[in-house]
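Hi V.,

You were right to ask for the full record rather than a summary. Here it is.
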Amino acid sequence: MIRKYFGIATRQIHVFSREAIKPSSPTASHLKHYNLSSMDQVMFRNYIPIVLFFPNNDYDSPMKSAEKSRKLKHSLSKTLAKYYPFAGRLTCGQYVDCNDKGVEFQEARIKSRLSVILEKDNDVASDLVYPVGLAEGGFDNDSSLMVVKLSHFDCGGIAIAVCLSHRVADAYTLSTFLTYWAAVTRQTSEQVLPHVILSPPNDPVTMQEIPPPKKNWVTRKFVFQNTKIAQLKSMVALFGVQNPTRFEVLAALLYRCAMTAAKSSSGISSPSILLYAMNMRTKMVPQLPKTSVGNFMWHVRIPTTTENGSNLNVLTDQIKKGKMQVGGLKVLDGEELMSMILFAQNNYKMYFCSSLCNFDMYKVDFGWGNPVRVTLSDPLFNNSIIFTDTPSGDGIEAQVSLDEQEMVAFELDKELVAFASLH
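Predicted structure:
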């Protein structure tokens, strides 16, 4: 049986090259041992997967596929000389051996036009462009910490998928990596160097590791136009919430809708908690450079145990106050974070939320224009909400993953339908 995606048979997807791209210059001997922070050590053993789709905009003199590939490999090698931990291998879970083994680079041809993929939006689309198996699972100590896949379409368009180990960096690091790699490819002077923090050796974190669950959920994408978001902000402002942000009102709305859907599905109102992953680089004391490499995030906790606590204005206010409370932290403690997650897991119905808005993903330009779409793989966990910018910047896209029965009720929520469109 030949599996198909959007009418494209797997025999029309041909991976024709796999190689290791190594740093353009060897890593200095005093940098060979990259210690993981306690935050790095407690991160899930999975890859952060993202893909950027680029159309062939120059039809008269299109850059040949081979030339694009050559330029990307050459610039990736130079980029890895600066982001040298990504070219190493994880050792014993406590440090990276910066041995310059490189990152895996795959190339594939897809016998289809890019427009066929962009016209659809389905979970199986990731199977076309992501490295096989990496988006869903973890890795062993000899695995490449980063895997890149370049897919060529018949029309000359391409997709660049990048999967980065969460043990060495967060999503914001991945965004700054892509920006730097693109700048090196364009050979522009606008290159903001990464800030690699050399941590002292850390004792191994002995906390229980949470294994990735078996997938039993569905994922949908909802688009909120800025005009609708402005209406939401005005609504909660009437109840005394001062200067609510786009994220605060959308996180509150989707969390509320998810709790309502869970109650509709089970008939029981369970204590719930929202854990929001917050980029801490500019929130810590002292502040960290924006290009700091690693896992510099913290979870804001929003527990909800009563019906009144699920009101939109109450949730928005709690999220705003929660963000303010974590500002000024001097140290991010991985064991404390894992204790928080384990406590939430044992006492609440847990929801995760993160935002990639304002990460400038749609400004990444390797020399052939900006991407027309940036997407994430299906998330690792159920009950998750991930925000990204819309391609045109006129709103926010929310990727929501819930139990299938709960998603049915979620999609019918009148308040959600009033402000969002299913993508």
